[in-house]
Amino acid sequence: MKRRTMGLITVGVLSLGILAGCGNSEKKESSNPGEIKVWVQFSDETAEGKAWQEVVENFNKENEGKYKATTEYIPRSGSGGGYEDKVNAAVSTNSLPDVITLDGPNTAAYAQSKVIAPLDEYLEDADMDDVLDSIKQQGTYDGKMYAFGFSESNVGIYYNKKMFKEAGISEAEIPTLEKPWTWSEFNQIAEKLQKKYDGPVFDMQIANKDEMLTYGYTPFVWSNGGNVVNEDGKKAEGYFDSKETIEAFEFIQNLVKKDYVPISPIEKGFETEKYPMYLSGSWTMADLEENYKDVDYGILPYPVSDKTKKLVSPTGSWQLGMTTSTKEKEASAEFIKFATNTESSKIISLSNSVLPIRNSTIELIKDDVNDGMKMLMEQNQISGQARPVVVAYPQVSRAFQQAIQDISYFEENPDVSKVLKARTKEMQQAIDNSIK
């Protein structure tokens, strides 16, 4: 399967200038009451598209004569354009469909700009207690739920079982969700591996310079009691430059300093057994099982701060939102609830190697997935945390990514506190500009 990290979670290239202040737009009455149009960001020829079509067909069959959903497939480009470009153009011309998909971190921008409407009044029968907390976190803005995730994601540390064994790491030393490695213990393991293989041992995807850095590295900050912004997403100062965040970034910097983590990793280094560890998500499993069948691997939980011992893992994926311009609110809401119910989540997860959004779905499929997927599903249940819901998320994420790059080239930028102070100012300025 093609590498999907950014296909699932890249920050949308929203034109916030276009979105800001667009307000509600009038939409002509549908000639067929109960008929809605849905825009999605993938192709109908992909596994995701085929699973989606099954969900839509099930909805139409169950609601025949009452509601009907049709899908327009608008694939995203590698840089995130295509789909978002069309959404932005539709906002400016008042031609949005009834339901759109949106990436998790874009909830606040779409909600503040009144592109999507709150869903709370329609969710009383949606069994929200069954929905993962991370899904509710990423879809909530200003106390209201504006978007409902139809898939979830999570990241762990892939490890090569043969290479671990050759380095003298026993089964008893392998961490579990109940007892993950602390940062100190992780450093000890990395040192042991480095001595055996005489070079870097952990591909953290630090060379990506994209959303993977924010997505994959925020758990280190959270585990140490730090944060990127405050709860309402309006304050970076005192959070991204806090003592706790600085300590988390120093942990990451030290992995590079000690040459455990390569700044310029070998492409497919884990898959070709050059590195014994790799930070990645569920999408990598399909690639390994299809193209690197000889690699005997497992997936480990995130290491935890020595100070808090708190396990945190990253979550976030694509959601469904009801546009403010729809005249078919009931049909739109019913479709969103159907596409996120237990059975629909099962179809989407099993067909597309993505994580379920409901506890009931996890119970339903846990015996039908491999150990790696099972581990990520369980880690998500007990420790998943969504990225900050902040209107200026693209700028905040970019500052986070640049801070990682700054500290990675530690000879030029050795002082983590100075780096974070400078990047915090950038974040705060972007946040202040977004809420004026």
From TrEMBL:
Residues 1-20 form the signal peptide. GO terms for biological process: transmembrane transport. The keyword Transmembrane helix does not apply. This is Sugar ABC transporter substrate-binding protein. It comes from the Bacteria. It comes from Vagococcus fluvialis. InterPro entries: Bact_solute-bd_prot1, SBP, SBP_1_CS. Belongs to the bacterial solute-binding protein 1 family. Gene3D superfamilies: Periplasmic binding protein-like II (3.40.190.10). The keyword S-adenosyl-L-methionine does not apply.
